[in-house]
Structure formats: C-alpha cells, structure tokens
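From: lab user (bench 3)
To: helpdesk
Subject: output format question, protein + zinc ion

Hello, I'm new to running complex predictions and I'm not sure whether the block I got back is the full result or only part of it. Here's what I submitted:
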Amino acid sequence: MALRGLDPHDPSVSALRPPLMACEHCAAIHREVILQPNETAACGRCGALLQRYSRLTPHDWLALTLAALVVFLIANAFPVASVAVQGQVRSATLGQAVILAWQTGHPLVAALCGLVAIVLPGLQILLLLHILVYLCLRRTSVDLISSLRLLGWIRPWSMVPVFVLAVLVALVKLAGLASVELQPGMAGFAILTILITMLGRLTPRLLWRLAERERLVAVYQPAPRPGQALTACHACGQVQPLPGGGHRRCLRCQAALHWRKPDWLARSWALLLTAAILYLPANLLPIMVIDSPLLGNSQHTILGGVIELARLGSWDLALIVFIASFVVPLGKMLALACLLLATQWRWRGNLAARGQLYRVVEFVGQWSMLDVFVVLLLTALAHFSGLMTIEAGVAAGAFGMVVVLTMLSAMAFDPRVGWDYAQPAPLSDPSSPPASSCRDRNRSPGTER
Ligand SMILES: [Zn+2]
Ligand SMILES: [Zn+2]
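Helpdesk reply: Thanks, we reran it on our side. This is the complete output you should expect:
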C-alpha cells in the first residue's frame, strides 16, 4: 500500500528508524521505543508517561469499539430509572431528560449535558470505528487524518462515567421522596462506562502510532538546519523543524504549527478569571428548585444538596458530591492560578511537581459536571404535576460553564514554557541520543527497530 505523503527519495524522510516524539509536558524530544509486556516509557526530563505497552491489536480494539457502539445505543434507547409517587410513575431516557430541560427553560444545561453525555461520546465511538476499520483493512483515505485530528479534540469532552455516578446520586436524593427503580438504560450506561474507560487507553497518540506502523500515515525523520529547533505538532505528534514565516502547517496533518501554544498566558488567565466570577453565582444561587404542595417550595444550593445527602444517611455520596462539586472546581482554579503565576514569574523550582499538578488538574476536569447531571436527572424524573416538580436553578447553567471554562483554561495553559525558562531548549539534533527512559526495565533509549 502507498505510504501517504512519504517520499522515499527525500533524504529527510526515513521509515527505517523509529520516529521521534516530543513530551507534551516539557517538550523534550525522544525516539520511540518498542515496549515489552508491562513496560511503560516515561520522559527522562519531567517524568510524564510517554508510552504504555498494549497487547491489543487494531482488531481487538475494533471489537471493543463495536461493543461500545451497541451498548451506547441500548443505553440511550431505554430509560435509566423510574420513579413512582402516589400511583404516578415516571421514567426517562437521557435524551428525554435533555429535551425536558430545554423545554422547561434551561437551554444551557440541556445543551451542555446533551453534548457531553450523548453527542460527543457517540461521535467518539463512531470516529474510533472509522479509524480502526481503516487500520484493520490497512487502507488509508483522505478523511483518516481528519478523523484522527477530530478525535483528539472531542476526547476530553466525553463524560459518560460522570453521568453514571450522577444517576446514583439522583436516585439516592429521590429515594427519600418516592420509590425509585433502576431501568435497563442504567445497566447500559454502567457497561458503557467500563468499555469507554478501556477505550480511554486508545489515545489519539497511540492511534497515530498504530497508523504509522501500518504505513497509513507518513513518518518524517526531520533534518533541521543548524540553529533550527524541533517542535511537535499538537494534533498528530509529528516532530519537525519549525519553519520561519507566519503560516506554519504540520507536514503530516496540516494542523497549525506553533512553538508553544499561542497567547497561552492571556487565554488561560481570561478563561480562569471568567470561571472564578461564575463560581460565585454557581454556589450562592439555587441549583435546584423543588415545588411541592405537600413539602412546600424550597431552593437548594450545591452545598445545601451535600448537607441534604448527609442528612439522608448517604455519607459516602455526600462526600463524593462535596469533593466533585465544591473541592475539585475550587482546587482546580487555585492550582491553575498557582501554575500560571509560577510560570509567569519564571520560577524555576519544582518543575516536576508542577507537571504532576497539571496532570491532576487535567484528569479531574470533567468530574465537576456531576451536579449538573444530577439536576438534569431530577428535573426529568421528579416531574409529577400537582404533587412535586423539580426544576433546574440559575446556578446549574453557571456551574456547567465553570466546568467548561476551567477545562478550557487548563487546555490553553502550556506547561512546556516553565521548562523553557528553567533549562536550555530541548534537543534539536535528532542524531544525538534521546533522553527517554523506561520505568519498568532498563533499556537503552532510541533502540532501532
Ligand atoms: Zn517531559
Ligand atoms: Zn500534525
């Protein structure tokens, strides 16, 4: 099969040597290594995980993805739970809950939940299927690269596991007011969570690597001129010299090429400060309004909801909601502010620890969406005219935006800049020995395949 974009007569291109890769956290350049079972390769400069051994072939991944697609359809076709109050029974699928939130005048909550729990997870599975079919058939196409790039964009926004936890929290909250029962949709989402967590190992970087090995995308071996620095494409990871001039595009995937993320400081601060401002109404205003002739009208803030869960005896869930809805967003904003200040003021200390903190901030990002999902579910399930209705409060939309803005702020931040200030620019000569290291086994880095 033809190797896309690869010219064998070009002296700067060679498929015989392992390709170069750059650490996303400190910009050090490494040469890819072939891992043995249970091995992982970490960056010798900052300690970030670069490669992890996977015994699964593209065919195995395809089977898992097909299973995820079937379970995704089942999970969305059936109600997640049913609630009964005085003979009235109500059940709702996730899609119906989103539509109801929209109809009751909460388009922001509906749009956010619909996107991160239905549209983007579905798109993620379809894109994976599309890419894996090409990998299994060992064929390339024009849209393979576009699909790989798109998958990289949407992957952090797929939040099925958070939704499953939210269903449990919502049902515990309703259990005190009505009789609740789990429905097949919930089993579907629980299995989908396991499958999506397994598919989480199939990162866009790993897919690019699999496509390289199958010779479906080009692998350029860069030959920088003296003084010319190497950088990696943020979309496909291809290491290449950074050309002069304004219009810089990746050799392989045509994504815009930057030395560091453009305007990272201003963008990250602007997003973080907007999130911090919205954090106030998100916590001070009611996230949920209960209207019931029997229980009276009541408004609940995020912390009020935590206290209520504890009062119902669910200390474990109260703790989870408290951590996910209060500690995580606040801690995340403080951590981001510290990282931004440390980099802005060119502090050279604790770079490895700062890198770890940034990775934690990235990891916990989506879990704060928990309370927004809980409100969405309560709105859909506890809607009994004349007996009890629960509606989303103003804080639900504000809180959803806090989650989105802090995630965007973390994405805009460039942890490589801190390393630039502290140490000389990373290796720019690919013939020099790279600095990769293996955690579980001593291996000379840059081993030829
Ligand atoms: Zn690194
Ligand atoms: Zn690229």
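A quick orientation on your result: The first strand starts at residue 20 and ends at 22. Let us know if anything else is unclear.
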